[in-house]
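Quality-control log, excerpt.
Job 1 of 2 completed; input and output follow.
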Amino acid sequence: MRVQIKLYATLRQYAPKENEIGDAFTIEIENPSIQGLIDYFGFNKSDAKIIMVNGIRVDRLDFKLSENDLVVIFPPVGGG
């Protein structure tokens, strides 16, 4: 199944090199869930602080995704 992804801040390292900041990119995923996305990219759940699917915040790892959903992931805020 295909889903659209936007990754921000430190998670941008998992986006395609040619991907511009704020632009979505498409991936094919076998496990269409938030946990499936985390496994696909290989980062920890703690690295994905805010997850939104089609503009709605999602906290459950078992949340099921649908074809062409837009998933936006933000890491924890850093700074000093």
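Job 2 of 2 completed; input and output follow.
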Amino acid sequence: MNRDFSLIDANFARLREGLRVLDEVARFEFHDESLFALIKGLRHELVRLEGVFPAAELIHSRQDEDIGEAYGIGTHLTLYTIIRANCNRVTESLRVLEEFARIYAPKVAEQFSEIRYSAYRFEVLLLENTPHYFLERYFGLGTVYPIVDTITEATWLVEHGAKIIQFRDKDSAKEAVRRKMRELCRFIAWHNKSTPDKVLLILNDYVDIAAELPVAGVHLGTNDGSVARARILLGSISPPYRQRG
């Protein structure tokens, strides 16, 4: 058996699966007729291109077990990540098919390339329909400054690109805020070791807690004490030097 056809058949299958997910998203999540029509048109075009390869060879190459099945695309927590994963599945499969079409169907190889570039375009169009897309763009520009009151929310935002986080907990006791801040500082220190994009943590109100921890600063309201005293406690300026009389 020619194992090339097993590879070709597997990539056509991955391609169909990925496009099916994406056209369902366009149809039912976004109700976008033009996007749905675009993806559906690509699916029909790929059926035609698959017919260029010898059907008997593709069918004969199919196996009961695929050793790669255990390594799927993982668990996706948002519509944004589902779209990204399936667009990657589509473009990767198209790239493989383009290369092997040069061997077995050279007349249509460039058509796989054209479809792949179309896939890059509709990936952006799909992602632009999700709030997460703009959230990531704003995080990348550093123009979003999220204010959070839970560790879970703070870590999610950091993992999704936030550059500055303000922790503002008005309901918990002071000692609870201290514990939460210690945990959050440990997480951010771990995160900052693994990426060049450092995250800055701002604490709301508690200057004395901030002085104990590696935070970037404190947010003070009009009734939250002296800014000069906060700077002294945080070490940004030295206490006034008192001359001896």
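Post-run check on job 2. The longest helix spans residues 3-29.
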